[in-house]
Amino acid sequence: MMSMPHGQSYDYHRTTFDGERNERCGCCVRTMKWFPVLFIASVIGWSYYAFVIQLSFFTVTNIVQRILFLLFYHAVLVMFLWSYYQTVFTDIGRVPSRFHVPRAELDRIVRATNEVEQKEILETFAKELPVVTRTLNASVRFCDKCRLIKPDRAHHCSVCGVCVLKLDHHCPWVNNCINFTNYKYFILFLGYALLYCVYVACSTIPYMELLWTGKIDGRFHILFLFFVSVMFAISLVSLFGYHVYLVLLNRTTLGKLSSIFTHLMASKSRHIHCYLIVESFRTPIFRFGGPDKNGFSLGKLNNFQEVFGDDWRLWFVPVYTSLGDGIVFPCRDVAPYSIEFAA
């Protein structure tokens, strides 16, 4: 629950100023955020030159093999780049205006004489909102920076400066939040990036022996391409596997991290600094039923379809097919994805 001095007006000018300050961040800072994306783009561009020019045209002598190499390579590359583009440039899911607490209600909260009264004010305002999760002290989840009631599974991103629907994490490699709107694209990006690296590494293996034995002229790009693709593949396989695991259990990175802080909350929950640290990394606490890390899990197939949709023909195509609106999520005690929910 938020803590405010009694008898004062809510300082909405301060929170508004904080939001405006985030929006007016310096040009240098905004540019630096794109460096990881530019680095990835540069690596992809160089790998294209190394594979297509150095390997396929200068090294591979069999015409049929060269054509097969290039056909499959470009098919994987298109899906890889398409998924990456969607992940980077898809707008984050923003909280609708009806979740924002009016100024009059904020002033009432400040003038409240105790936290119980503050809690009742928020509960009254949120009774018409579709929220079923609560904070550690069983109050409505409220964001003091955005001045709104947080929808279920939404969290405040300190980098973007706003609350984001079903926030998984903020990824610097895509300069974007991984959230409800682009989570499918992000997983496809990881999968196609892994497939790209494995294919490139496997394609260069036969020519590594020829390079070492001197049967072909030294090709620095081919040698370096092999080691770079292997290095990235090793990094991607664990990350991709982890997010597939999260999808099948219908959890997010923030939700999964809750288990790390479980004992910390139990032993130090009386201290406010501990509460603030673990609030975003805890197991979801439901209004009825209490904490349940599997509260949103509907079974592996339904969990998969929640992210990838119910049309199997589009599961692995980076187009939007996720079910729901990012605000209301069915729980285990509710029938998964009724017609009314999906509408």
TrEMBL record:
<keyword id="KW-0012">Acyltransferase</keyword>
<dbReference type="Pfam" id="PF01529">
    <property type="entry name" value="DHHC"/>
</dbReference>
<dbReference type="GO" id="GO:0019706">
    <property type="term" value="F:protein-cysteine S-palmitoyltransferase activity"/>
</dbReference>
<dbReference type="InterPro" id="IPR001594">
    <property type="entry name" value="Palmitoyltrfase_DHHC"/>
</dbReference>
<dbReference type="GO" id="GO:0016020">
    <property type="term" value="C:membrane"/>
</dbReference>
<comment type="similarity">
    <text>Belongs to the DHHC palmitoyltransferase family.</text>
</comment>
<protein>
    <recommendedName>
        <fullName>Palmitoyltransferase</fullName>
        <ecNumber>2.3.1.225</ecNumber>
    </recommendedName>
</protein>
<keyword id="KW-1133">Transmembrane helix</keyword>
<feature type="transmembrane region" description="Helical">
    <location>
        <begin position="63"/>
        <end position="85"/>
    </location>
</feature>
<feature type="transmembrane region" description="Helical">
    <location>
        <begin position="185"/>
        <end position="208"/>
    </location>
</feature>
<feature type="transmembrane region" description="Helical">
    <location>
        <begin position="34"/>
        <end position="57"/>
    </location>
</feature>
<feature type="domain" description="Palmitoyltransferase DHHC">
    <location>
        <begin position="141"/>
        <end position="256"/>
    </location>
</feature>
<keyword id="KW-0812">Transmembrane</keyword>
<dbReference type="InterPro" id="IPR039859">
    <property type="entry name" value="PFA4/ZDH16/20/ERF2-like"/>
</dbReference>
<feature type="transmembrane region" description="Helical">
    <location>
        <begin position="220"/>
        <end position="248"/>
    </location>
</feature>
<keyword id="KW-0472">Membrane</keyword>
<keyword id="KW-0808">Transferase</keyword>
